[in-house]
Amino acid sequence: MKAKFRLRGVAPTCEADVDLTGNAVGLGGNRYHMDCLPWDAPVSGTVYGTLLNYKGALEALGNEVNEAPYLAPPKAPVLYIKPANTVIGYGMPIPLPQGVPQLEIGAALGVVIGSRATRVREKEALAYVAGYTVANDVSIPHKSLYRPAIKEKARDGFCPLGPWVMERDAVVNPDSLRIRVFINSKLQQENTTENLIRPVRRLIADVTEFMTLNPGDILLVGVPEGAPLAKAGDRVRIEIDGVGRLENTVIPEHELVMGVRV
């Protein structure tokens, strides 16, 4: 399968064959296990997250969605931004802020936009997709959905992405992908994009109805209900069938300088 990625210290984007079974990359005539390469985030556009796009996540709110201030379930995508400071690559540490015991691990399929998309028709939506990546929409646990959770979701290093962008045509059906979260190699969560309220095509169409997505932007389709928690020292692995796996370790923030453990 063909994928595009970036390595730290290497300016251009690389394209190579990747072996999802063996977790390896063919590069420069050589084969490398993915843990041996210095991965950077494979994209540099704006990352948009989507709330309440899994059936179970919406159901878990129960009657709360019918109470003030909303009074009804969402009729359009509920979006938020993961700003540039949150984005890190495979293998880079996830900072654990002082005084926070655990972080919520948000496994998400990232849809990478390939061409400018405005008022896209649903049946044509995938033509605007360059490929797919694995995302970890990290958050400090919180309950309120009534205001933007900036302090909880927009901290430095709170959006690992990668390790690559799998080309669009290598993923036969983005609406039927198994997603698994492992913490210290133990399975903690499993779900599938079959449970999306707005499948990928419809989500792109609904979002581009009111805003333009540009090449390199990433649209996270949502986080399943029951997101697991990780503490300092935990190794987090997110796997999405046909797309790849993303691994990062949670490290206390005070042990990091410019994102590197000291």
UniProtKB/TrEMBL annotation:
Cited SUPFAM superfamilies: FAH
Output the Gene Ontology terms for molecular function.
Answer: 5-carboxymethyl-2-hydroxymuconate delta-isomerase activity; 5-oxopent-3-ene-1,2,5-tricarboxylate decarboxylase activity; hydrolase activity; metal ion binding
Which ranges carry the Fumarylacetoacetase-like C-terminal domain? 46-250
An individual GO BP term? small molecule metabolic process
Keywords annotated in UniProt: Hydrolase, Metal-binding
Q: Does the keyword Metal-binding apply?
A: yes
Record has Metal-binding as a keyword: yes
Which Pfam families does the UniProt record give? FAA_hydrolase (PF01557)
Task: Tell me which domain of life the UniProt entry assigns to the organism this sequence originates from.
Answer: Bacteria
Question: Which PANTHER family does the entry mention?
Answer: FUMARYLACETOACETATE HYDROLASE DOMAIN-CONTAINING PROTEIN 2A, FUMARYLACETOACETATE HYDROLASE DOMAIN-CONTAINING PROTEIN 2A-RELATED
Q: Which family does it belong to?
A: Belongs to the FAH family.
What NCBIfam families does its record include? HpaG-N-term
According to UniProt, the name of this protein is Fumarylacetoacetate hydrolase family protein
What is the scientific name of the source organism?
Thermoactinomyces mirandus
